[in-house]
Design goal:
about 325 residues; alpha/beta; Rossmann fold; seven-stranded parallel sheet; five-stranded parallel sheet; 13 helices; globular; binds (2R)-2,3-dihydroxypropanoic acid
Length: about 325
């Protein structure tokens, strides 16, 4: 019998990542990429020392409590870790890691796509062409709004927020941000810090969400805060749906308070509020911020680096619990 640690892998991972896993561990892979239930995770974890999950698996307090005693580490294939009850993990002495940095470029790229897609009515345009309903051209046809030179408010100026700011500067956007901490001046690169979200919102032609989902940020974008935006603002979220209240966002889109929204992260994925798809002024993606070949490989290798460190007796670089 091999003395390599047994790792439960909950989803199908990139080929190169699975190859390295199989070289260094005894992985329990999921070649069919089936979404396991909580009970299946607990059952399959029996005899394993670690789990390598994605954000699609929810490690709530009851799951963590029922995990086999031998499980010592949850090495996530994600930067977000709101799917893990960190308090419960700490209580049980479980090590939890994430995969920061490596997906910042891909997520910032998708954020730009959401901004431009929402501003330029990309969903409507594509539907017209694909359904062969495009009949004519006129100066009044499919008119959107500029992105170039507008004011962009970034909520959460961490790694992804900072790369997004860089990309947006390429469109001559004026960058504003709100975070719990102000960046050192050399990292701000001219971005304007706001102590409170309420101070920033009235200045945002575009607002893009880049903060973690925590109890403090859940529902932050509510009806009152949407009302503080300028009329015709554009809302973008490639982080977590939990940051906005669905009714408030949909209400602001229906009333025209918001010109449009570009969304990649939702509440209750993938069974999202059906009204998002019915609205003409939404540009919708299915949570693919980090979905590039390069980034998915890098996320997998980063999760493996964390496992390697743990099983060597070192502190994993990306420990969050
Ligand atoms: C992340 O890494 O958090 C992405 O949302 C994919 O899970």
């Amino acid at each position: 019998m091999s003395d390599k640690p047994v790792i439960l892998v909950t989803r199908k991972l990139p080929e190169a990542v699975e190859a390295r896993l199989s070289r260094d561990y005894e992985p329990r892979l999921n070649p069919e990429d089936v979404l396991y239930s909580k009970d299946e995770i607990i059952e399959r974890a029996t005899g394993a020392q670690g789990i390598l999950p994605c954000h699609t698996e929810h490690f709530t307090a009851d799951v963590i409590e029922r995990l086999p005693e031998e499980i010592k580490i949850i090495a996530n294939f994600s930067v977000g870790f709101d799917h893990v009850d960190i308090g419960a993990a700490k209580k049980r002495g479980l090590v939890v890691t994430n995969t920061p940095d490596v997906l910042s470029n891909a997520t910032a790229e998708l954020t730009m796509m959401l901004m431009i897609g929402a501003a330029r009515r990309a969903s409507e345009g594509e539907k017209l062409v694909r359904t062969r309903s495009w009949k004519d051209w006129s100066p009044a046809f499919m008119v959107g709004v500029d992105v170039t030179g507008k004011r962009l408010g970034i909520l959460g100026m961490g790694r992804v927020g900072q790369v997004t700011a860089k990309r947006a500067r390429g469109f001559d956007m004026e960058i504003h941000y709100h975070d719990v901490r102000r960046l050192p001046p050399e990292m701000e690169e001219g971005a304007i810090f706001h102590e409170t979200l309420e101070d920033m919102l009235p200045l945002c032609d575009f607002i893009s969400i880049h903060c973690n989902a925590t109890p403090e940020t859940t529902g932050l974008m509510n009806a009152e805060r949407f009302s503080l935006l300028p009329d015709g603002a554009i809302y973008v979220n490639a982080a977590r749906g939990a940051i906005h209240d669905d009714d408030a966002l949909i209400g602001a889109l229906q009333s025209g308070k918001l010109w449009a929204a570009g969304i990649d992260a939702y509440n209750n994925e993938p069974n999202i509020d059906a009204r998002f798809a019915e609205l003409p002024n939404t540009f919708l993606m299915p949570h693919i911020g980090s979905a590039t070949i390069e980034t998915r490989d890098a996320m997998g290798f980063r999760a493996l680096d964390n496992l390697d460190a743990y099983f060597k007796g070192d502190e994993p670089g990306d420990r969050v619990a």
